[in-house]
TrEMBL record:
InterPro entries registered for this protein in UniProt: TRAPPC13, TRAPPC13_M, TRAPPC13_N
All residue ranges annotated as the Trafficking protein particle complex subunit 13 N-terminal domain in the record: 10-168
Self-association and partners: Part of the multisubunit TRAPP (transport protein particle) complex.
Name used for this protein in its record: Trafficking protein particle complex subunit 13
Coiled-coil stretches: none
Domain Trafficking protein particle complex subunit 13 middle: 172-301
Cross-referenced Pfam families: TRAPPC13_M (PF23647), TRAPPC13_N (PF06159)
Domain of life per record: Eukaryota
PANTHER family in the record: TRAFFICKING PROTEIN PARTICLE COMPLEX SUBUNIT 13
Length: 387
């Protein structure tokens, strides 16, 4: 009959504790009126309670702080801090102690130990302490693996591990929408408006310290989340930048293509990279978190091989007087040059007092850059185009 050997006791003890900010101690006030049976007993007990505020005993929040009683929640973008202690519980001197801490995620294994060098010896009732930090960048299951190896006085090498599993949750829900600027003079308003909707999906309020857009090399960005009042820049969200649980806040940004890219429409065709959002917030007692989105991509509107846009056109014109219109032709193709045929089609109108504009066709050779054409005609009679 096989007998399982007894489990060997280790000379060292490993303790791991997560380091978090304390919370304000909450007290449940119990009071009654003096004419009730307890009289002033409850009020006197609350006045004698050291956790209550003197003169405001019926308030739930006191002046004391309490340490976390459990592991708590860890959110994406926060810094995970943990205290690791190895204590010698025996009466022997232990040698060659090596403490290693790894963090296993769904995609990688990270070494969090500050030093990989072994401690020469550890006397009885002495300990080895270490504090590890890691900025959490993945959601899902994380496993903290703490391994300890040492050598006893008899020369026997010992080794043991402990596993600490925790979940990393998503703190914010970020949604983005793109809007193309619509204007009759579209050639000078190639702006892209980005709307970012940020929702707090945690159970505690957040202080939004910074929400900014880092544009790509093709764009310049302007934030539209503040207004100028009496020479001062005031945010549109008010003086308090708190985001309550399940609340949503909208941020707006305007992106304009840089001059060297705006003149070459073929570069910004198809899918273009806009940039990424950088979000920084604080929670209870100043715990900071930071998130950066992946590169935001936008499908640029398709203009075909050639894009014709209006640069300038008068609001009103006089009858039978010539007026000027400035057009812009942009070659959106990747080839060096294109032959473009341009003209005005006849306009058929049921109103007799509006004349018919005859067709005029011109041929233009244009390269990758844009060409501006100045057109001149009258309402009641036709005039030749002038360049």
């Amino acid at each position: 009959m096989e007998v399982n050997p007894p489990k060997q006791e280790h000379l060292l003890a490993l303790k791991v504790m997560r380091l978090t900010k304390p919370t304000l101690f909450t007290n449940i006030p119990v009071t009654c009126e003096e004419k009730d049976l307890p009289g002033d007993l409850f009020n006197q007990l609350m006045r004698d309670d050291p956790s209550t505020v003197n003169g405001a005993e019926i308030l739930m929040l006191g002046e004391m702080l309490t340490l976390p009683q459990n592991f708590g929640n860890i959110f994406l973008g926060e810094t995970f801090s943990s205290y690791i202690s190895v204590h010698n519980d025996s009466n022997q001197v232990v040698k060659d102690i090596l403490v290693k801490a790894d963090l296993q995620t769904s995609s990688q294994r990270l070494n969090l130990s500050a030093s990989n060098a072994a401690v020469a010896e550890l006397k009885p009732d002495c300990c080895i302490d270490d504090v590890i930090h890691h900025e959490v960048k993945e959601i899902g299951t994380h496993i903290l693996v703490c391994a300890v190896s040492y050598t006893t006085q008899s020369g026997e090498k010992m080794y043991f591990r402990k596993f600490f599993k925790f979940q990393v949750l998503k703190p914010l829900d970020v949604k983005t929408k793109f809007y193309n600027a619509e204007s009759d003079l579209s050639s000078v308003t190639d702006e892209v408006f980005l709307e970012a909707q940020i929702q707090n999906i945690t159970t505690s309020p957040m202080f939004m310290e910074k929400v900014s857009l880092e544009p790509s090399i093709m764009y310049n960005v302007a934030e539209l989340n503040s207004v100028n009042q009496a020479g001062e820049c005031v945010t549109t969200f008010g003086s308090r930048a708190y985001l309550q649980p399940m609340d949503t806040r909208q941020y707006l940004y305007c992106l304009k293509p840089k001059k060297e890219f705006a003149e070459k429409a073929g570069i910004i065709k198809g899918v273009t990279v806009i940039g990424k959002l950088d979000i920084v917030w604080k929670t209870n007692l100043g715990e900071r978190g930071r998130l950066q989105t992946s590169q935001l991509q936008r499908m640029a509107p398709g203009y075909g091989d050639v894009r014709l846009s209006l640069e300038a056109i008068p609001d009103t014109v006089n009858l039978e007087e010539p007026f000027h219109i400035t057009c812009k032709i942009t070659n959106c193709r990747s080839s060096v040059s294109s032959s473009i045929k341009m003209g005005l089609l006849p306009t058929h109108n049921t109103h007799r007092h509006i004349p018919v504009i005859c067709s005029y066709w011109i041929f233009v050779e244009c390269n990758e850059e844009s060409h501006a054409l100045h057109l001149n005609w009258a309402v009641a009679h036709t005039e030749h185009f002038k360049f």
